[in-house]
Prior knowledge:
Elements: E1 10-12, E2 14-15, H1 27-34, E3 40-42, E4 49-51, H2 54-63, H3 71-87, E5 93-97, E6 105-108, E7 117-125, E8 131-139, E9 144-147, E10 155-165, E11 168-179, H4 186-190, E12 195-200, H5 216-228, E13 233-236, E14 240-241, E15 256-260, H6 277-283, H7 286-297, H8 303-325, H9 331-343, H10 346-364, H11 367-370, H12 386-394, H13 396-422, E16 428-433, H14 442-446, E17 455-459, E18 469-473, H15 478-483, H16 487-497, E19 502-505, E20 513-518, E21 527-530, H17 533-547, E22 550-553, E23 558-560, H18 563-569, E24 574-577, E25 598-601, H19 610-615, H20 617-624, H21 633-653, H22 666-678, E26 684-688, H23 689-693, H24 720-725, H25 727-732
Parallel strand pairs: 1-23, 5-11, 12-13, 12-26, 13-16, 16-19, 19-22, 24-25, 25-26
Antiparallel strand pairs: 2-3, 3-4, 6-9, 7-8, 7-10, 10-11, 14-15, 17-18, 17-20, 20-21
Amino acid sequence: MTGAARTATRRGRSSSRDTRAEGPPSPLRELADYMHIVPEYIDQTGSEVRVTSDETRRALLSALGVDASTDDAARESLASLRAGDQQRLIPPVRVVEVGSAAARSVSVQPPPSRSASGPWRVELETENGDRHLTEGPWRGGATLDLRLPPNVPIGYHRLRVTLSASGQEWSDEQTLILVPPRCVTPADLLGDRKTFGLIANLYTIRSATNWGVGDFSDLASLAEWGGAVGADFVGVNPLHALLNRGPDVSPYSPVSRLFRNPIYIDITRVPELEHAPELRQRLSSAELGAEISALREYPDVRYEQVMAVKGLALAALHRVFVERVRDSGDARARAYEQYVAGNEPALTRFATWMAIAEAEAAGHRETVRAYDWRMWPAELQSRDSDAVTAFVAARAQRVDFHRWLQFEADRQLGAAASRARDAGMQIGLYQDLAIGTSAAGADAWAYPHLFVRGVSIGAPPDPYAAAGQNWGLPPINPRALRNDRYRYFIDLLRSGFRHAGALRIDHVLGFFRLFWIPDGMSGADGAYVRSPSADLLGIVALESVRHNALVVGEDLGTVPQEVPPALEKWGILSSKVLYFERDRRGGFKAAKTYPELALATANTHDMATLAGFWQGRDIDVRAEVGLIEKDSIEQARDERDEQRTALLRRLKQEKVLPSAQMPKSASELRAAVHAFMCRTPSWLVGLALDDLAGEVDQVNVPGVSPDKFPCWTRKMRETLETIMLSSEARTALRCDGRVKAAAPG
Length: 745
């Protein structure tokens, strides 16, 4: 996740009870309810009710552009919102299950002149271009339930309703989204065979060939090895576009979730290199070789340096593409044209943001201002301004460079996915969709009507963070998203599913509600805002079926009661983590208690590795960065002793260790944990590459600044080539009963 601490999953209950004195709700409360601001919630202890204050309501409503400064203003705002909603004949979008009663009709709100009568007409254009027309009479009065053609397939369809009466005509359009009853499930892909996969943070991978950061070729190699040892998927961190500079390197705080980070491009695999003899000579020079070798040897990823070196090579390769390929009409030129056409207008908007940010950085040399569109000159802050249009015309080649980068990143990711399939993986690549995007970044600039300013998402107070957590990411206005017919959300899913056999949705609880914190307030003053969960999950199911891919929902934390049955209904796998699957006495739960519809893992990127857990390295780090008070350190270490004992006891009870004693080697202990995970009924088990290799330090410590801990930069100690040949890694890779028979031993 974005850095939120992971505590044991608790089932919270949504509450609509008002704990104040009984009586009619105030205009402010009515308005907040209408805008889906939750009046109260049960905290993580499951016992305390936290009530949303009027101050918080006003701050959130103001951020949403709704005046609630006084009761009279709130009353007028509510009346205006209701009037606007009632003026529409039909909602702008409707998400319904195919074959349901709701899919066979449309409810129409009659126009103001309700006494009139006349004909109605419903025109339905399906996404494949088929047209259906139905007509009939209507009389003024109640809501009209008009019939739709039967047997309309799943997909995104255009519905137009027209009413006529007394010489007047009223028309309205709706995007009708017909969705399947559930996502693709493991049984659909795997039959009755439970399986496992590898999970890695791509940027941490060392190899003999990369330039100081794991790249798409490393991902392909990992997938081939995974297929050889019987794995069916390789999961990676979000590959979203980042700034690759300073502290802006968290894969969970991208500048765009629609596009990818070009730092993962393998320069040596770019086709244009074949037509660039001078660049090939430069790449083979001792000087550049020494620079790349140094980047490989650093213990951490030097994002800015890596991107600087790669950027020069990529710029040269793009010039070759422009001069020799783009207008050639060959297969690569056609592929580029198809990629651009299939991703417009979002692609050019993203490329434009990147080009403007670079120009601002070159002109002002102030990185913070340059890469935050809110600090750009006013005329560049609107994507549709004349100044932006003029900029694109003047910097056309640089804008095209960023389009081409995305094209090549997509091609190399696709090649890695193909190699995963060729290696026998039934699922293939497993990608990760972050919960949000930077307020300063490209998506917020390109879609300003969706992102709410003056608010950040986060988490309420819990035992790990008494003041709550502020993730610094802007929420999306649910009302604006719906009025925009979910187009941005659909594009997010399509990007995430592209080249993937599974998609992990970070903090899937946000599909139900997100915790909003007004600027200047602490997490203790935040409030939950409801999301249109049924619509969002229905669209997820549609895109899952379209891409024949699984969906995993990261549902750790305080889980409202409605979430587990909803995820199960839609066929979305839950996330189960060994560290959190504990009973009330602190013991680790039996393997048989894990749910079937789940991905089971020992840990996550926010948690200790298995070696770090066993050595207590995570406790040491938390003490060093001030997350544990000095007088609590010994208590934490005593508790870890108890946890180690409890884990050994569970491993013996599950018969993956002969006794409740530490085995001869650390790799055998990790092997026993993995064998335990593979004994659970969960469809998928994810084994972390860090744990196979025996990494001690975790990659992220939630809520800690880069000056205290190198979050998101730590590399693995050994190269991928070494790990793949390592006897210790092979020992740790124990997944009894899940390794495919055809796989080598």
